[in-house]
Amino acid sequence: MALQRQHKIIIGSVSSLLILFMLLTSIFIYTLFLKQNQDYNELSNKIEHLQTETESQLGELTDSVLEAKESLTSLGLQVGSIDTEMNQLKASVSSDFSGIVEDSIKSVVTIKTDISQGSGFFIADGGYIVTNAHVMEGATRAAIITYDGESHTVYKLGENSEMDITLLRINETKYSPLDLADSDDVKQGEQVIAIGNPLGLQFSVTEGIVSGVHRTGLNTLPVYIQTDAALNPGNSGGPLIDKEGKVIGINNFKIGTSENIGFALESNSIKEAVNNIASQALNQTLI
What we know:
Layout: H1 5-93, H2 98-104, E1 108-113, E2 117-124, E3 128-132, H3 133-136, E4 142-145, E5 151-160, E6 165-170, E7 191-196, E8 204-215, E9 224-227, E10 239-241, E11 247-254, E12 262-266, H4 267-282
Antiparallel strand pairs: 1-2, 1-4, 2-3, 3-6, 4-5, 5-6, 7-8, 7-10, 8-9, 9-12, 10-11, 11-12
């Protein structure tokens, strides 16, 4: 049966509406796709920008942390320098060597052998210790006692019998050496301290002045500092220290029948003797 006119109109209208609906839907979907794609691109750009900004801020933060660390390290060095200068100032304007002693005594050692005991001090980084040769003379066993109470096996690297100097070493590198002064600059009347182990009294300190310079010793050489700082058996090998905390001599001997007439080998001679021993034993100079 043929469709009537009104039916054709209805079907045509429905088809048109359906086509229009599909067209509008396609346009809507396409528009929505474009919007989502745009939003995605904008979000990607924001994420990329944020990532770049974050990396930049992290770089700045890292630089700031490094600068702060360097500043703290520098401040620590400055504080340490100030403490040292204060100790020197305190010693120079009075007889108070307490700050100098506190810094220096940690570098002094007790030397115990199977026949005697004496003193010594760290002369260079790496566990190197200097003492008098007569402290080790005839010994078959020896040990080093550091200020922290630890006992160390000691190795003898060599000696200079003329200067009565022996160079030792322990297998521990954490201890700081004492600095040597230029003994040519030592003046009569300077205040000094001697650190050692007199009569077994470990890490004792005595105070005095430089009584004379370039005195002639038992080796007939004018390389000794005379001091009235009390020296007793056990002080041998310990340092004689000035008001700046530097070693001007190594305590060597005293005149037995007298009071407070002691002698220390001058620091310049210590340096020469130690470097000669190190040159022969290690093929290097130490100080």
